[in-house]
UniProtKB/TrEMBL annotation:
<feature type="domain" description="DUF4365">
    <location>
        <begin position="35"/>
        <end position="146"/>
    </location>
</feature>
<dbReference type="InterPro" id="IPR025375">
    <property type="entry name" value="DUF4365"/>
</dbReference>
<dbReference type="Pfam" id="PF14280">
    <property type="entry name" value="DUF4365"/>
</dbReference>
<protein>
    <recommendedName>
        <fullName>DUF4365 domain-containing protein</fullName>
    </recommendedName>
</protein>
Amino acid sequence: MKKLPKRTNSKAVGNIAANLLSATLSRFANPVAIPESQDIGIDFYCELLDQQGCPTGQMFNIQCKGTQEVQQEGDNFRITVKVSTANYWLIQPSPTFIIVVDIGKKTCYWAYPRKQLQENTSWQRQKTVSIVVRASDCFGFDIDEMPQQMQAILNANVPEWIYILIEQFDSKRPVVPLDNPEYPGILIHELSNLANTIDIIDRLQRRMAVMTTRFQEETLQVVASLRNKSEALLGQLDYTPGSARLWPPGSNIDISSFEFGAGSSKDVWQRVDQAISAFKNSPTRENHERLLFSLGELIQLNRDIYWTIEEVCDVY
């Protein structure tokens, strides 16, 4: 019988795991597999998609580990990686997740190694480091969206990701080694990465512009709704039997001038209307903070009016 190359079992498991994971990730992200010849610690570069399938500009990396069956140690199990690989993850501007694909159980277990690696740096003196994977952090192949905890980590990493990019852009580039025959290839790789980063930032800026407009509109809607609610509650209080006991008999007091804990309705409404007008004319950060402050006043005013209605009704 002729001698032929043979695929090892570990290689087969790894390929199956990568294919299953790629198909699963494609439900909520755009995964790009890294060729094995260029894999130095990351198997997939991914961009998160929104519910309409549009790119969000939020990038993350995946290191895939395949197994026939996970050997748990109680509620956890461990994955061992090289120290050089761990350091590579730490310098990435996008968060890197380890995903262990259990082919037998058809389950994916995930871990976010950055936090573990940053809590204790003694592993730097070793050749390998163990990453703890919690058995409860898992999802099946039929998942349609990124797990909420992974999404929260991705959202929280946006500021850190931006700071890393700023440092990379601000850092002084080394002198061009024109006498190094390998430099042109290195330069092309660096410029390609830089172009990708600029493209991501551009998409993120456009996405943030849309999100900012939506957030501003929602804030105005909430403020206007609570403004109308306070008017309705005040009218309800005015017609509540027993409300006259709140002021002296025979007095002709405008109920909008009655002082609640948050102040009089008239004063609160005036500040709210001024904040809305200022924000519509100039949606700056300062005016947005002013609008949010007025929102807090409205919430407290509505509570005060409601509690007063309850108190008057109980006494009456």
